[in-house]
Amino acid sequence: MIKLATMRRVEAEAIPAHTTTLSVSWLNNQFKAVAVHRGTVEGTYEHPVDVDGANNFEALIREAVRQTGYHGQTVSLVLAHPRLAQQLVDVPPLKDAAVRRVLQRQAQQQKLFPGEAAWAYQRSLSAKGAQQVILHLFPKGLQDQLVQGAQRNSLHLVSLVPPSALIHRQLARLGAEKGDLNLLAAETGGSTTIVIARGDGQIVLVRTLTGTWNDGPERLALDLNRTLPFIAQQFGSPVKNLWLFGPGAAEQREAMQRTMQLGLHLSPVEHTPLYWAIEALKLQPSETPNFITPVMQQAPQRRAFAKVTAVAAGFVLLASLATAAVCQFQAKQEASRIDNLQKNAARLKTSLDQLNGQTADLAREQQMVQLVIDGKEPPVPLWFLGYLGEAVPRDLVVTNLHVKRDGDVWQVQMAGVPQTTVQAVTLESFSLSVAKLTANLANGPFHVSVPGAGKTPKTRELRFLIEGVMR
Amino acid sequence: MSDDTTNPTAATFPARQTGQPALPVPAKSIGTRDWIYRVGIFVVLVPSLALAWWSYTNVLQPSLEQSRKLISDVSRLEADVDRLSRKFTPAETEEITNKYAQIPNHLFDNTAALELWLADFKSQANTLGLDVKADVGKPTPQATSPKKLAVIPSSLSIEAQPGTNVNSVVPFPCQRLLRVAQIFGAQGKRTDLTELTVFCGTNSISRATITLDCWANEEGTQ
Fold first, then answer.
1. Which H, E and C letters describe B20-88, residue by residue?
2. How would you write the pLDDT of chain A (471 residues) with one tens digit per residue?
3. Residues of chain B contacting residue A371, judged by C-beta atoms under 8 Å apart
């Protein structure tokens, strides 16, 4: 029942629907590929013969793409390789970033191959109080060849994982007791990969053994027997369950069991030729040791972003150059316009100066004309004298007349006496005549303003004096 | 599978062709290439934006401002020219010019010319039976005049010659005195009568005093 339930649970997991990739398993010499488009397998490819050499990856990928009709952009690779090794490394209790710096040094020190090492890691169950990680090591040069092989096919290698990651995943799903240590040995294309983990999924150890149960079950059983005490010693707990997975496991179990004290079980997970390529798609990236770092994984996005930035920068450059050119062109046009305007302004200034001179001359002449000719005053006093002949009544005689210009007005002073030769003069008749004279002066053409004009002057002497103003 | 050793049992693909350029291997982290790229973008963007900004602010903007200022200046000048052109109409200009040309005819050239005119006036007054005594004052420069002018105050004392019937047409002294106005008007020079004092006898005018302002060129009076 436990087995059936486990099978159902394992089989129920499908490829995530958003996945589009060419998933490749290259276990030592066996190359297989599955083209997945949006979670659906659209094509598969198995290279007919064994093939090795990382420099062949480019050609293998090209063939896989051709055979599967894959039209995505990424490649995921499960790789079993003689140079792909694991080390159990003690690390100080640090955070991930610090651990990575420590591991970078450890990787370069512990590698067993020449050249730089690429590495990936996963935290292991701590033993005897020390924090441990499983450090996966692989030659950086070979990794670069794989990356370049994908790039030459216009693909991007986003995942390079050891098969132990898939075995660990399978082991976690076998339904063992939480605290028990379990071992799963899987045949990985000519080698055997062993993963030991607790029932709760906490990984303990990964080992890769050369040879398989198909080559020599006794030798493999011997290797397993050597591993078990090491585990018991390191982690203080023996391995409770031991499963076998892969081709030939059922056939060789009996032979192996003969030399092993611990009971061997066959993994309930069905092995298919494309198991590794398909199961790799179900790995959780955050829990998977991946030689392709996040920075490398995001390289295409960065390249795309860089292209966009470059295009934008180019556009800004062109726009700036165009703006500068337009500004220069406009400035040149403005300069020409300014030149014309300056000429026009100079011409107008000359005209204005001339007109100013002419106008000033004309204004001066006008002032002179107004002063000398238009300002010429008529001989008003003589006209007034002539008018008196008409204005003075017959019974009056003017003895003195004085007319003088005073600003804008004429001051008039007139004195006189009665005409004695005409008739007898009375004071009353004299007053009436003087009143008539003043009225004539006031109402006449000269409009002499005489205070008391029109009234009969009160006089006691037969003399009159009229003072007035003529405007 | 092995990396560099050939497995005789395994099929192999042809090795990479010689001379094929190696593709760049993605960096582990943001490396030199990325920094060079970023610096390159910065080097491209900043100067190009600076060039555009400089072109606009230092090249185009000053030109536009100068152009605007000049347009304003030209408009103002045009308005001024137009205003001045309209200040005097051609008819006014002609009238002013003609009158200005006549100004010398209205002024005495000098004191001698004035005395000559007074002598002539005396002579004409004598024919009317009037005795004239003239007194020429000191010339006063006219400060308000744009041209140098002077006013020469002159006083004429006129006495009627009683019983002298020199001309049957103007038998009365008063009428004879009024004829003096005609003499002033006829001579054309600027002589402003500013004061008149008349003394009359029993029947008629016996004596009169006339004060005149005679206009002359200042140069001639010095």
1. CCCCCCCCCCCCHHHHHHHHHHHHHHHHHHHHHHHHHHHHHHHHHHHHHHHHHHHHHHHHHHHHHHHHC
2. 344 444 444 444 788 888 999 999 999 989 999 999 999 999 999 999 988 888 899 999 999 999 999 999 999 999 999 999 998 888 888 888 888 889 999 898 888 888 999 999 988 877 666 788 899 999 999 999 999 999 999 999 999 999 999 999 999 888 888 888 999 999 999 899 999 998 888 898 999 998 899 988 988 998 888 888 888 888 888 899 999 999 999 999 999 998 888 889 999 999 999 999 999 999 988 888 999 988 888 888 888 888 898 899 999 999 999 999 999 999 999 999 999 999 999 999 999 999 999 999 999 899 889 888 888 888 888 888 888 888 888 888 888 899 999 988 999 998 888 877 656 778 888 888 888 888 888 888 999 988 765 555 555 677 888 889 988
3. 142, 144-145, 149
Phi-psi region of A38 (alpha: psi -120 to 50; beta: other; left: phi over 0): left
The verdict on ipTM greater than 0.85 is no
Residue A55, chain B, CB below 8 Å: the answer is yes
Contacts of B44 in chain A (CB under 8 A): 313-314, 316-317
Amino acid at A352: L
What ranges do the domains of chain B cover? 34-87, 106-221
Which CATH superfamily is B106-221 part of?
Answer: Ribosomal protein S6/Translation elongation factor EF1B (3.30.70.60)
Q: How many CB atoms lie within 10 A of CB A160?
A: 27
Residues 95-124 of A with CB under 8 A from B: none
Nearest Cα of chain B lies from the Cα of A463 at a distance, in angstroms, of 14
Residue A61 CB burial class (10 angstroms; 0-12, 13-18, ≥19): buried
Instruction: State whether residue A353 sits within 8 Å of chain B by CB.
Output: no
Locate the chain A residue with the closest alpha carbon to B208.
A401
- Asked if A341 and B192 come within 8 Å (Cβ–Cβ), the reply is no
Q: Please give the model's pTM, rounded to 2 decimal places.
A: 0.58
Facing B106 at nearest CB: one of A60, A144, A373: A373
